[in-house]
DNA sequence: CTGAAAGCGCTTACAG
DNA sequence: CTGAAAGCGCTTACAG
């Protein structure tokens, strides 16, 4: 039974398109078989240039849009990539989305999103359901989801290929993109040391995030290379939140014996440190240099603007999508998945300067 | 020809699932026809409870996941909703996504995203391409895309139903959800007046956004109701950016004749005003009360925390998805689409207090 | 309350 | 270089 009514004649008359042209319509218009249309659209070889042009012309004339459901059902690809995330930060997620979509568009792929809670009881269920019903061609994972063993296992069990952004462990398990957090933290510390600071406070990140450890290592490494012994009371635990940064600032800035600079493991905490300084009438950067990490939009939304570390998140996400689309994320020698380290960018703004004492 | 190999026996042996069960497998397992399985899964009536349970049991046993592509190709629904946005702000978009997805999950829908540039040359093309190839069941539009006549036209021409979030004009054209910007701005102004402020500065929003006009009207209305004549030099143009807020602050706070409170049309500008005050050693809130609008995360990431207006964005987005899923966004009397106004929330924090003079 | 048949719009595997 | 046939996994429309 024919289920949808075609109204080409009517369409031409009224100017309205109630239906969409199918591959059959294009084939008829071009005077070829649907297989040939399929060849042209999929850029398969062995099509005469003349035939090819006729198909393209017919396709354009009818404003043909291949039906993704049909392609997916018949073929092995769904042209859908899934992004699973548990909001590290809206700005970060936004960049990941834009980067991934830009690459997807080049190849006719689309991006579906699945915001999830890292501590959800049925996290695996949500992942499995989405991958199976949508037949996702690939999955992109951001921290901390990218390090959840349950998620990785379920993806592998259903045979889905995936790329991890900034994974912390088991990098030999699947494709990934990331940056060198340790080197970046070291570079920032060097920046402060170069300005003349020798007494630098450090606010640690959330203990569950692998990046926290690496950033601290980079900080200590930089000090060590200059022969500076770190003072235990200058290193304070934080949780990546504004409030934890504020509290760290209160501790580090109490009393006369205080550091001339503070390096916080992310921007939110750096803003907290700045707020604490403001409250104590300690001028930034004149009396205290403050540095962050991440280059969030907020880094430019404070006074003075924050010196921080930026990552090419758009590009990292685009490459993640690329690994999925090209199939590189699926086909790799066991234990040797493709991985790529991106450059960071040390952005010096107004919150750091030479020490006044 | 059979194209995919089924390896049930092997699966059982190895414990790996290389294939996914289909409706045929479930039907066989339950001893019914595929039509009956379809009925149960789609919650259609006329199925014996006993049969129904057998199907459900078989479905669970085989871990059956209906293939969305097949459902979409055969039926009239794709179970896909598209979200088109041009980043008003990452935090806003993030909330919209989470709200929409939460409602989608309840009904087995998924969300695809299409970040677009409002000034893109081929904006219509991107929209048309996505809607046609994905067979989107519905589209959600955020400002300023929701007011782009080209986008609305192309959606209507392909017969897509859509819901606009916070549209500014032609509300009779399609379904929408929104809030009362004027009433919210009036409430904020009343808050400042109630504290005892009579000389209040106002920073206008971006002239292209409908909300800007409404917020200014609310501000003026509140003053008018107390018989206070607005001073022209107390109203400054802004562009919703931190920098424009900072510059507005510099103008409003120069000299001794300055307002005791400033109401900025969004949080970013309010933060700019606060930065300007800090630079001028004007204490907030002691010497100057500052109020914002939007309740962005940054509102709590400053010192003092910002008094502002919050919107139930999650809920608004969930209702938008609901209107699409239930079909209410499609079937409505001409010129009378469903629309819903949500309550705002005046959140008083630390940046506003009684005037000191 | 249940099912057999046809069809959705593509791709795959072959044949020529 | 091109095409006819079969099939992907569902829903629709109909019959009983």
Summarize the structure.
The first copy, chain A, is α/β, with parallel strands linked by helices. The first copy, chain A, is 42% helix and 13% strand. Chain A has a six-stranded parallel beta sheet, sandwiched between helices.
Written account of the structure:
- The structure is a homodimer of 357-residue chains.
- Chain A is of the alpha/beta class and 357 residues long.
- Chain A folds into three domains: 8-66, 434 Repressor (Amino-terminal Domain), CATH 1.10.260; 78-180 and 313-343, Rossmann fold, CATH 3.40.50; 181-311, Rossmann fold, CATH 3.40.50.2300.
- Chain A contains 13 helices and twelve strands.
- Chain A has helices spanning 8-14, 23-30, 34-41, 49-61, 68-74, 90-106, 123-134, 149-157, 181-195, 210-225, 242-253, 267-279, 313-326, and strands at residues 80-85, 110-115, 138-141, 162-165, 175-179, 200-203, 235-236, 261-264, 289-291, 308-310, 339-342, 345-347.
- The first copy, chain A, has a six-stranded parallel beta sheet with strand order 2-1-3-4-5-11, sandwiched between helices.
- In chain A, α12 (267-279) links the parallel β8 (261-264) and β9 (289-291).
- In chain A, α9 runs parallel beside α10 (210-225).
- The radius of gyration of chain A is 27 Å and the shape is elongated.
- Chain A starts with 7 loop residues before the first helix and ends in a 10-residue tail after the last strand.
- At the A-B interface, α5, α6, β2, α7 and α12 of A face α5, α6, β2, α7 and α12 of B.
- Chain A binds a DNA duplex (16 and 16 nucleotides) through residues 1-4, 22-24, 32-36, 38-39, 42, 45-48, 51, 66-76.
């Amino acid at each position: 039974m024919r289920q949808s009514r075609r109204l080409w004649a009517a369409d031409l008359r009224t100017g309205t398109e109630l239906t969409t042209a199918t591959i059959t319509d294009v084939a008829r218009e071009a005077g070829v078989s649907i297989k040939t249309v399929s060849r042209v659209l999929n850029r398969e070889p062995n099509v005469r240039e003349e035939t090819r042009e006729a198909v393209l012309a017919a396709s354009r004339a009818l404003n043909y849009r291949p039906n993704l459901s049909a392609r997916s059902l018949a073929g092995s690809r769904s042209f859908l990539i899934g992004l699973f995330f548990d909001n590290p930060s809206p700005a970060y997620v936004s960049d990941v989305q834009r980067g991934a979509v830009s690459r997807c568009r080049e190849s006719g792929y689309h991006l579906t999103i699945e915001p999830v809670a890292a501590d959800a009881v049925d996290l695996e269920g949500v992942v499995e359901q989405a991958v199976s019903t949508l037949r996702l061609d690939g999955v992109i994972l951001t921290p901390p989801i990218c390090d959840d063993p349950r998620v990785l296992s379920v993806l592998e069990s259903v045979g889905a290929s995936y790329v991890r952004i900034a994974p912390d462990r088991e990098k030999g398990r699947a494709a990934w993109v990331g940056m060198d957090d340790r080197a970046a933290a070291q570079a920032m510390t060097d920046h402060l040391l170069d300005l003349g600071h020798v007494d630098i406070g450090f606010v640690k990140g959330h203990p569950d995030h692998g990046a926290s450890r690496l950033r601290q290592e980079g900080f200590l490494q930089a000090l060590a290379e200059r022969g500076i012994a770190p003072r235990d009371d200058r290193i304070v635990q934080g949780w990546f939140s504004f409030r934890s940064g504020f509290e760290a600032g209160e501790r580090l800035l109490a009393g006369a014996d205080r550091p001339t600079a503070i390096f916080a493991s992310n921007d939110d905490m750096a803003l907290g440190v700045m707020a604490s300084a403001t409250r104590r009438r300690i001028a930034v950067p004149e009396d205290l240099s403050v540095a962050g990490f991440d280059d969030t939009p907020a880094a430019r939304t404070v006074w003075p603007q924050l010196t921080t570390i930026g990552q090419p998140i758009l590009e990292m996400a685009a490459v993640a999508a690329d690994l999925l689309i090209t199939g590189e994320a699926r086909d790799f020698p066991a234990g040797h998945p493709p991985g790529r380290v991106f450059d960071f960018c040390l952005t010096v703004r107004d919150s750091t300067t030479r020490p006044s004492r």
